[in-house]
Amino acid sequence: MGRLQAIFCREVLGTLIAAVFVILASDHAQAIRWLALQTQGWNTTAECRQARLAGELSRRQTRLCRSSLDTMVQVTRAASSTVAVCQDLLQDRRWNCSSIQLAPHFTPDLTTGTREQAFVQALSSAAVTHAVARACAAGLLAHCACASPPTDPPDGAFKWGGCGDNLRWAAHFSRQFVDSADKHRPGRRYRERLRLANISVDEGDRELALVNLHNNRAGRRAVESSVQAQCKCHGVSGSCSVRTCWKALPPRLFEVGVRLLRLYPRAVEVRANPAVGRRLLPARPTRYSQDDLVYVAKSPDYCHRDYRVGSVGTYGRMCNNSVEGHLNCANMCCGRGYETRTVEKVERCHCKYYWCCYVKCKTCRSWVNINRCN
Question: Would strands 280-282 and 318-319 be described as parallel, antiparallel, or unpaired?
């Protein structure tokens, strides 16, 4: 009986060890699982552990969570902003970022190194940087404060002052948090344990890690490029004889997302070359910069439902023949045609403000055509 119990215990232990390795190995494969943290509260370190067990944080992210609970509130806001902005920017395209809502269990369109994953990686990294930088300036975080005044001399009748968004500290935190799953690859002993547990860590993982790190950096650079000077006037009777200026980010992540959306269609396909270390080489004779998005896996056309590649298709999607571009029915429906239905639209109209203090509106009815792809 004792021998059977020992064998059973060894089998159970082996299964548990394999399960732990699967969790740890998947840190590398799904570096944006933290986007599931949209409603998480951060009052105690126990919540960090709960997020780890739920597969929403990597091992290193969990450590950072425990030491920076107040900053995790901004990470949660960044996750919500990433999801909202991504879907807002891509709502008129075949791939409309709907799969981002599946976090932390993503479909292949966001795990295999596609152009779409490149955009989400960059946007999520930018979101963390943007949220943390503004929180520093607002005095919401214990680890940082306002940014130091710029070292370059003022250009014009103003002086540097005020409270600038602390982009430097925010970028540092973003590198620690967002890059952690891809930056720290398994060591030799750890890889050997994974091999014994029948879990492979191959060059494809290494290639994807390099691509993710590049796109994370591109997102942070997009935030840096969006910094502008904001000023406040001083002087007698509002004469604005002297202005105090500081460097500030746009109030919404949307403006940064627009910058990244311009890079999305011209993302560069790359390959990792073991002969050049951590450097990525273009798959075709072309050049790319640190600001560009890069990818390693070609995307499907997203016309048809195919869960093997993470495509939900465009069946039932609304389209508009009165506009050109992605939302046009010929493009959205991929040549399959569309069905038109006429529906009644009811809305408030002819509103008038009465002193004091209410608004009175009429109800207007109209008939509109709604097109949906076959």
Answer: unpaired
Distance between CA atoms of residues 115 and 297, nearest Å: 7
Q: Among 72, 66, 70, 36, which residue's Cα sits nearest to residue 54?
A: 36
| pTM, 2 dp | 0.83
What tokens appear for 14 in the block? 């082996």
At 240, is the secondary structure helix, strand, or coil? coil
What is the tens place of the pLDDT at every residue in 203-258? 567 889 999 999 999 999 999 999 998 888 876 666 777 788 888 999 999 999 99
Report whether pLDDT(348) > 70.
Answer: yes
Tokens representing residue 125 in the block: 């990294």
Residue at token pair 């997102």: 219
In sequence order, the β-bridge partners of residue 234 are: 242
Alpha carbon distance 83, 103 (integer Å): 10
Strands (E), 241-314: 242-248, 268-272, 280-282, 294-295, 305-306, 311-312
For residues 219 and 31, give the distance between their C-alpha atoms in angstroms, rounded to a whole number.
Answer: 14
Q: How far is CA 148 from CA 22, 127, 152, 154, 218, in A?
A: 44, 22, 12, 14, 23
* H/E element, 353: strand 338-354
What does the alpha-carbon distance between residue 220 and residue 210 come to, in Å, rounded to a whole number?
16
Contacts of 138 (CB under 8 A, 6+ apart): none
Is residue 293 helix, strand or coil?
A: coil
Gap between the Cα atoms of 319 and 371, Å rounded: 6
Q: Using only C-alpha atoms, what is the Rg of the chain?
A: 25
Q: At what angle do helices 203-225 and 115-137 cross, to 10 degrees?
A: 50
Which bin fits 305, alpha (ψ -120 to 50), beta or left (φ > 0)?
Answer: beta
101 with 84: CB under 8 angstroms?
Answer: no
Residue pair 149/161 in contact (Cβ under 8 Å)? The answer is yes
Residue 204: Cβ within 10 Å count: 15
Please tell me the distance from the alpha carbon of residue 349 to that of residue 220, in angstroms, as a whole number. Answer: 44
Here the tokens at position 282 are 């273009």
Residues 6+ apart with CB under 8 A from 237: none
Exposure of 2 by Cβ count < 10 A (0-12 exposed, 13-18 middle, 19+ buried)? exposed
Q: How many CB atoms lie within 10 A of CB 158?
A: 17
Q: Cα separation of 272 and 345, whole Å?
A: 54
